[in-house]
């Protein structure tokens, strides 16, 4: 019973970390894309 609970908690933490990291990556990539567009507009 305890090991099952531990496993569920571990899976929950892993899922949380993956989801959080994925969200950060999406925000980061969109921010980088925005900056690239700004640079292109200023240069071109």
- How many β strands by DSSP? 0
As residue ranges, the low-confidence spans are none
Form type = rod-shaped
Overall SS class:
mainly alpha
Tell me about the biggest sheet?
none
Distance between the termini: 64 Å
Percent of residues in helices? over 70%
Q: Give the H and E element order.
A: H
Question: How many distinct folded domains?
Answer: 1
| Content of β-strand | under 5%
Instruction: Tell me the Rg in angstroms.
Output: 19 Å
| Individual helix count | 1
What's the rounded overall pLDDT mean?
A: 88
What is the gist of this entry?
This protein has 1 helix and no strands. The protein is an all-alpha fold and 44 residues long. It has one domain (1-44).
Task: Describe this entry's structure for a reader.
By secondary structure, this protein is mainly alpha-helical. The protein has one domain (1-44). It contains one helix and no strands. It has one helix spanning 2-43. The longest helix has 42 residues, at 2-43.
